[in-house]
Amino acid sequence: MTESDSAAQQPEQSQQNGDGTAATSAAAPSRRAVLGWGGAGFALGAAAAGGAMTAFGGGPDMVSAAAAGASVPFHGEHQAGIASAVQDRLHFAAFDVKTKDREELIKLLKEWTVAARLMTAGLPVGEGGFGGLPEAPPDDTGEALGLKASRLTLTIGFGPGLFAKDRFGLEGKRPEALVDLELFPGDNLDPARSGGDLCVQACADDPQVAVHAIRQLARIGFGRTAMRWSQLGFGKTSSTTPDEQTPRNMMGFKDGTRNISGTDKAALDKHVWVGAGDGSDWLTGGSYLVARRIRMNIETWDRTPLQEQEDIFGRDKGEGAPVGKSKERDEPFLKAMKPEAHVRLAHPDTNNGATILRRGYSFTDGTDGLGRLDAGLFFLAYQRDIRKGFIPIQRNLAKSDVLNEYIQHVGSAVFAVPPGVRDKDDWWGRTLFA
Amino acid sequence: MRPARLTVIAAASVAAALTAVTGCSQKSDAGGSDAIKVAASDSACEVSKTEFPSGKVQIDVENKGSKVTEVYVLFPDARIVTERENIGPGTKASITAEIKAGDYEIVCKPGMKGDGIKQKVKATGKGGAEEKRSPEADAAVAAYRAYVVQQAEETLPKATAFAAAVKAGDVEGAKKLYAGSRIGWERTEPVAESFGDIDPKVDVREDGLEAGQDLEKDWTGWHRLEKALWVDNKIGDREKQLADTLIADLTDWQKKVGQAEITPTSIANGAKELLDEVATGKVTGEEERYSHTDLVDFKANVEGAQKAYELLKPIAAKNDPELVKQLDTQFAALNTLLDKYRADQTTYEFTSYDKVGEPERKELSDGVNALAEPLSKLAAAVTK
Questions:
Q1: Partner A contacted by B312 (CB < 8 A)
Q2: Distance of residue B167 Cα from the nearest chain A Cα, in angstroms
Q3: Model confidence over A396-427: pLDDT tens digits?
Q4: What is this model's ipTM?
Q5: Cα separation of A329 and A316, whole Å?
């Protein structure tokens, strides 16, 4: 969406809602009012869509962006939610496709696109959350009314099941790089938390906005899709904006400092975006996503001596500096670390340059029935080819990482993530079904 | 069942009552000479005038026949405006009612049985006139009312047979008759629940009792007997007594059910509520936690929803053909899914729900969501 598009949409939607919030927006910017700012040149997300992201260059911009709850443009060459600056909250959902009808599936994807376009702009879906027929449920569930766009991004992915034979006529379009993952040593995968024909990643600075988005899509999908599993996440554990401090994971450590930056166009083109000659033309400009639910044995970790914790990661706990260095972003000297330290094993230099864009979130889903915190890392990795990205790194980690004593992979899924929705006539997956 | 719930149907009655009250001031007082005289006999129901001004209306009935009679004023959709029962031979009775402009029927029922003898009447004027409904909508409401009455009538003999088995101390026989005795109730649950005094007596579950209620004394109805049959596996004096209570309460329901406030939107939302019942109580196995006959209730809920939908379909098809297509597909899909759990489609012998695994329950739940979501749009489609 261009800036002028979003500005043009505002009055139309205000009318639809007719609740008068726009009138009071001067005092407290509503979700809708924020769009007006976007139109006036608050070009935060527009820059992101172009890949330049210069607006994120400085700290002050970052703060004002979050404070304003700005909207990230939905349209672009790539889907938002991959290289975009990582938001604070996540609601990730995997769906089974229930319809057997290809046209129905296409219709659903078009309906989802329309809803996603509205919601990422901070607008309610359909005819809104109130003011309609009293006898009928409102089109929009309403829990995000009055909230800002909160940098909501919605990112769709297509699971291997979609390409199955005799299903939607897509068997010839399954990309070779969309591989079924092998069972790695130590995996304890729960089928009820794994797989899925479709996924939607909703990231936002406000958890209510992210949850609302998934809830709306699930509702629109009923009869054609059924939610298979979903995961809430908080406290982003990675940053795609290198000027920010790397957030800490649930173990209290900074991890993934060397994550690919959302502003590093060369690295994104090399490691994240599917290129024109990569073998699946429909996916050009897209990516591959690996999602893993990684449970942490929180209680035993907390009883581990500090020195051992630091040895396990290969970083100090306070600053996050690699062994023998003083600052977090100092170039790590891998040989100074224990051979089985996490950072050493995960580093591109140990993996023939293999690297991924990490976008994981911490999760805490209550307790597990044994009084242990059901918590850990919901790991999301984007890459150009799963065979060259996640797999070699994970093979290395699963085999030797001393961190394995404290973690267990309990959910797993892979998806092909199509390119961005280009304009208002485009829709999620158009190139796949063309 | 949810005893404290204000169902859409009950809510509709409240709304109607309020309308009647607020309309009062506009009406002229009914004078004695303006009264409508009804001469009832064993074979006739003569009305002194077939047109009268809307407002507060007095009806003076004289029973000139040899049988006890009752007189009703009915809306075109067969809903009761007002009634008077037990008018003995040779006696007189007066009925007053707030009647809005529109078409009505005055009905005498000699012997208080059958369809009665009907007279078409018209209340004229504009004040407080009820919004005119289409004949199609009236037809749907009348047909749904008939369905509800029929379900209650068919339930009673089945429940009586179940009660008889309990009273005979026949545990196995009672178990066989239990689920079937509930089908009519489950098919019309939103209407049945609108009688808030009956629902907690016949369909409450152990955890539905309120604080201060006594499990021994206050827990009555089907599920209390279900527990005795499947958990205790024995029938005592208390159970035999409760079997009688169940029949008394269901008889009360049968008497009242024709009077429920029903509108096209309440039928539509009632259909959705039936799916809600499935989603919250049956698919989880909570409803029939001892007998595990949840799939019988499930099927009955779906049948009741489908009946409601079919009656409204002619209206919905005009306003939202796409929705009708979707609902046809999803009803068929859910019925096909349910049929996987019974060998013979002519019976209600379904797989015991404790034998239905988690993935299958998820599949059933997905099927319910797939139908219930579009079904929630039916009310809008019949209101347009």
A1: no
A2: 44
A3: 999 999 999 999 999 999 999 999 999 999 99
A4: 0.77
A5: 12
